[in-house]
Amino acid sequence: QAVVDFERLGEHAAAFQGHDVGFCCLGTTRAKAGAAGFVRVDRDYVAQAAELARAGGCKHFVLQSSQGANQHSRFLYLRVKGEVENLVQAVGFDCCTIFRPAVLLCRRQESRPTEWIAQKFLGIVAWVFPTAYSVPVETVARAMVAVVLQPGEGKVEVLENGAIHKLGRA
């Protein structure tokens, strides 16, 4: 494990050398970092990490994005996620897999009351519609491992929430 300073990511290029596969689940919230900080973390840091990984020999890059990602969205969160998807694809990996999970069900260290309420509600909804609105982070992690062990046919593969559930159960 290498600890890097994302504000000086270029100085840590050695940490990105010699890996066949790269996984990126980096992100923050607008509430925590402000709008500019959110863009810097969720788009700029991720794009720079992808470039360093590719330069270091990474062939398959796996990116966690978001359901509804769209570079033309009026909503900052979805627009930034769409922009970073395009930036990562443009890096030129042999294979790029983009995960678009719905609401991630997980335990967080910091308090997010609105997210906690949404997770409780969506946890109940998941009993009726298990793949529609949410996904446990453990399922996403298993799916990410599965997609690397059994890569798809295309250069770029985008997996929506239902496919993530399916892969995460395999």
TrEMBL record:
<dbReference type="Pfam" id="PF13460">
    <property type="entry name" value="NAD_binding_10"/>
</dbReference>
<dbReference type="GO" id="GO:0003824">
    <property type="term" value="F:catalytic activity"/>
</dbReference>
<dbReference type="GO" id="GO:0005737">
    <property type="term" value="C:cytoplasm"/>
</dbReference>
<dbReference type="GO" id="GO:0051170">
    <property type="term" value="P:import into nucleus"/>
</dbReference>
<dbReference type="InterPro" id="IPR016040">
    <property type="entry name" value="NAD(P)-bd_dom"/>
</dbReference>
<protein>
    <recommendedName>
        <fullName>Protein HTATIP2</fullName>
    </recommendedName>
</protein>
<dbReference type="InterPro" id="IPR036291">
    <property type="entry name" value="NAD(P)-bd_dom_sf"/>
</dbReference>
<comment type="subunit">
    <text>Monomer. Forms homodimers during oxidative stress. Interacts (via N-terminus) with elongation factor EEF1A1 (via middle-region); the interaction is direct and competes with EEF1A1 binding to guanyl-nucleotide exchange factor EEF1B2, thereby inhibiting GDP for GTP exchange and reactivation of EEF1A1. Interacts with nuclear transport receptors XPO4, IPO5/RANBP5, IPO7, IPO9 and KPNB1 as well as GCN1L1/GCN1 and LRPPRC probably through their HEAT repeats. Binds NCOA5/CIA.</text>
</comment>
<feature type="domain" description="NAD(P)-binding">
    <location>
        <begin position="4"/>
        <end position="151"/>
    </location>
</feature>
